[in-house]
Design a protein that fits this description.
With 105 residues, the chain is mainly alpha-helical. It has helices at 34-46, 49-64, 75-83, 85-91, 93-103, and strands at 18-19, 24-25. The protein has a two-stranded antiparallel sheet. The mean pLDDT is 76.
């Protein structure tokens, strides 16, 4: 059988980290604002070489097969759709069907 034992202890002491150059307490790493991390998180995704290669490959295939789609063939529309294809593929069912038509060999 387990017995619980209580040990006498003083109140916990929190050390104050300070920078002598700033003359104010530093924030501990666990107390940093979450917003900064959420804003920088997409930057890691965009700079990931595997993501860039996948985006470029999909953009090339979509650009080369664009005439098979139902979209308007002017250059401005083509450039926008090719640049934004991952977002449109994830959010639009009609775009997914046209994208599949375009990338088929």
């Amino acid at each position: 059988m387990l017995r619980s034992v209580t040990l006498p202890c003083a109140a916990p002491v929190r050390p104050v980290l300070s920078n002598p150059l700033l003359r104010r307490p530093l924030r501990s790493p666990s107390r940093r604002p979450v917003q900064a991390n959420l804003l920088l998180a997409p930057l890691g995704l965009v700079t990931n070489p595997f993501v860039l290669v996948a985006w470029a490959g999909g953009a090339y295939k979509f650009y080369s097969g664009f005439e098979k789609t139902n979209f308007n063939a002017d250059q401005a529309t083509k450039a926008r759709l090719v640049a934004l294809w991952p977002v449109l593929y994830a959010t639009n069912a009609d775009f997914r069907k046209n994208f599949q038509k375009a990338i088929q060999s």
